[in-house]
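Rotation project, supervised by the postdoc (A.L.). Task for the rotation student: set up a whole-complex structure prediction and record inputs and outputs verbatim in this book. Inputs entered:
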Amino acid sequence: MFILHSLLTILWPKICISCKNEGTHLCEDCLATISPNKEVFSHNSPSLTGLLSATSIKEPLIQKALAHYKNPPFLRDLSSQFAFLIISHVLNSHNEKLLNNSVLLPIPVPKKEQRRRGFNHIKEITRELSSSLNIPIVSIKELPNKRILLVDDIYDTGERMEDMASKLKKQGAQDIWGMVVAR
Ligand SMILES: [Zn+2]
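Outputs recorded:
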């Protein structure tokens, strides 16, 4: 596997989707041009306590990154940059305390979508968050009595997140926060 991976890297070096420099799919310099939201988005949600949205969907580079992640060429590694942006937002908005006594739950992705990509794009971001923040990932079947950070890529109409959050509420969850890359 290692040899195969090295060979692939030589044949297809990772190139930044923005500046085209070699090394990663989105280099540190370009990543730094995406400004994380400083405020928590407040809205009247019956089920969510709040929404942590790393950045704005209006950022052209985030649109490009998400498109290259979810569609061909399926740049799976971008999940670590998305997790980095989410963590930066949590710190910039002074919400570190939300990371205590919390668990991560990825929004379910239909099997058909997973097959098309070859990976679960939400779980991938959730895994990165889990290893960087040292917060466990739980399943909807076994919800602990802790704050739930519900992970998704984009908060659009909010319908998908609302549906999931109301399901969790019915199962007894009290404090549910949305955690997304962009809205
Ligand atoms: Zn770059």
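Student's summary: The first strand starts at residue 50 and ends at 55.
Supervisor addendum: The chain has a mean pLDDT of 92.
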